């Protein structure tokens, strides 16, 4: 098993919040890729059938790197800016076995 750690996140937003949410998640993802050496990838996707449902695929060197990400200023700013937009958030933790 790889020591790379990943999460697949689904965010269901309040109706009509998709466009307002987009710049915040894109800024967080870009800052993560640029400033966190232990981040391998951070992909942001929006559901084809629902503009208010986003998915993220994030890969880190290990689980501790994800913990450090969650303590970063850019992540905290993202959470603060978008918390009222979210209806439901699910996180599936995985281990990467092939990239």
Please give a structural write-up.
- This protein has one domain: Alpha-Beta Plaits, CATH 3.30.70.
- A hairpin with a 2-residue loop joins strand 2 (39-47) and strand 3.
- The chain is an alpha+beta fold.
- The two termini are 12 Å apart.
- The protein is globular.
- It has helices at residues 18-35, 63-70, 73-82, and strands at residues 5-13, 39-47, 50-60, 86-95.
Give descriptors for this structure:
3 helices; alpha+beta; four-stranded antiparallel beta sheet; Alpha-Beta Plaits; 99 residues
- Summed up, the domain count is 1
Biggest β-sheet: count, sense, barrel? 4 strands, antiparallel
- Report how far the terminal alpha carbons are from each other: 12 Å
CATH level 1 class label: Alpha Beta
List low-confidence stretches.
none
- Gross morphology is globular
Order of helices and strands: EHEEHHE
Sum this structure up briefly:
This protein has 99 residues and is α+β, with helices and mostly antiparallel strands. 36% of the residues lie in helices and 39% in strands.
